[in-house]
């Protein structure tokens, strides 16, 4: 039986694949744009990706506001088929002023699709966050996007037999695309986020790398949120709206990793802090983007 506390890996109902991190090294094309008022967020992100000639991208959202906003946050499953699930749909009164967000863009069932997590301020000034549902639109203020299109990787969302929930998986795109400057990965349940970052950097051949535009879930969360202060979000899952950080010395025996994130708990509250190493295993899936640092970094 799974221990019901943050930081302890979950045991899901389906078959457990031996490969726990699926990675594809790829070049990167940086696209900076604004999602215009009235646009459907997911559709606009896919159009930017498609226009760059790619079938996968990792993106960061900033500023602007949402118009129609429908979202869910993590919940404990009650149907007996899985451990973690989603809350009922929440549809607050607009606007939602964007604090930040992350998105993975690719295809599902052959059509453009985006997995988007974000944090925002509602009309009362309360900080909210969650997993955006299809149909969420841009409000009166355009949303700024930095999108990293991935010529060497196709990102495909399918239902995962292990967790019975949807997950994006990267697949190599045939052909010559140039030197790899990033690694896009699907991290499966139970893998610690610090370990996943180091492994992704090594697969790209990067000694130093940065983490950005990454999202997914962890088993609760354990964060440093001030001098001598540890914050623990509730079991069984929290959803990261952003994960950023650095890794140095990934090609050596003692890599140094620093990760910071913002995340949403079971009640819809948003937390932020520095992740404690070895104490944040993936709950359901994590879409990790690791980019080479230094002179070869993309801008």
Summarize the topology:
Blueprint: E1 21-26, E2 29-35, H1 41-51, E3 57-62, E4 65-66, E5 71-72, E6 74-76, E7 84-86, E8 96-108, E9 111-121, E10 127-132, E11 143-149, E12 153-159, E13 166-172, E14 182-187, H2 193-204, E15 209-211, E16 215-218, E17 221-226, E18 229-233, E19 238-248, E20 256-264, E21 270-275, E22 282-292
Antiparallel strand pairs: 1-14, 2-11, 3-8, 3-11, 4-8, 5-10, 6-7, 8-9, 9-10, 12-13, 14-22, 15-19, 15-22, 16-19, 16-22, 17-18, 17-21, 19-20, 20-21
What features would you describe in this structure?
By secondary structure, the chain is mainly beta. The chain has a single domain (21-294), classed as Hypothetical protein, similar to alpha- acetolactate decarboxylase, domain 2 (60s Ribosomal Protein L30, Chain: A). 8% of the residues lie in helices and 47% in strands. The chain is built from two helices and 22 strands. The strands form four sheets. Strands 1, 14, 15, 16, 17, 18, 19, 20, 21 and 22 form a ten-stranded antiparallel beta sheet that branches. Strands 2, 3, 4, 5, 8, 9, 10 and 11 form an eight-stranded antiparallel beta sheet that branches. Strand 8 (96-108) and strand 9 (111-121) form a beta hairpin. The mean pLDDT is 94.
């Amino acid at each position: 039986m799974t221990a019901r506390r943050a930081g302890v890996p979950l045991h899901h109902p389906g078959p457990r694949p031996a490969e726990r991190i699926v990675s594809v090294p790829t070049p990167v094309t940086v696209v900076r744009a604004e999602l215009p008022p009235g646009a459907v967020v997911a559709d606009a992100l896919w159009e930017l990706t498609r226009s760059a000639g790619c079938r996968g991208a990792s993106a960061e959202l900033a500023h602007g506001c949402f118009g129609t906003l429908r979202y869910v946050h993590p919940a404990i499953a009650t149907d007996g088929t899985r451990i973690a699930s989603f809350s009922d749909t929440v549809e607050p009164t607009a606007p939602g002023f964007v604090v930040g967000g992350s998105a993975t863009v690719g295809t599902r069932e052959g059509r453009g699709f985006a997995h988007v997590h974000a944090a925002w301020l509602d009309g009362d000034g309360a900080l909210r966050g969650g997993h955006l549902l299809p149909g969420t639109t841009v409000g009166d203020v355009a949303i700024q996007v930095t999108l990293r299109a991935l010529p060497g990787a196709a990102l495909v969302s399918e239902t995962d037999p292990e967790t019975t929930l949807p997950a994006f998986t990267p697949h190599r795109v045939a052909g010559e695309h140039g030197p790899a400057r990033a690694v896009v990965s699907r991290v499966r349940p139970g893998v610690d986020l610090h370990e996943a970052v180091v492994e992704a950097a090594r697969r790209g051949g990067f000694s130093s790398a940065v983490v950005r535009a990454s999202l997914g879930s962890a088993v609760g969360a354990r964060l440093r949120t001030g001098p001598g202060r540890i914050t623990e979000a509730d079991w069984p899952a929290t959803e990261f709206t952003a994960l950023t950080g650095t890794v140095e010395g990934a090609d050596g025996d003692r890599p140094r990793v620093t990760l910071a994130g913002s995340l949403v708990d079971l009640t819809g509250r948003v937390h932020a802090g520095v992740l404690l190493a070895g104490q944040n295993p993936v709950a359901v899936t994590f879409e990790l983007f690791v980019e080479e640092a230094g002179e070869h970094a993309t801008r």
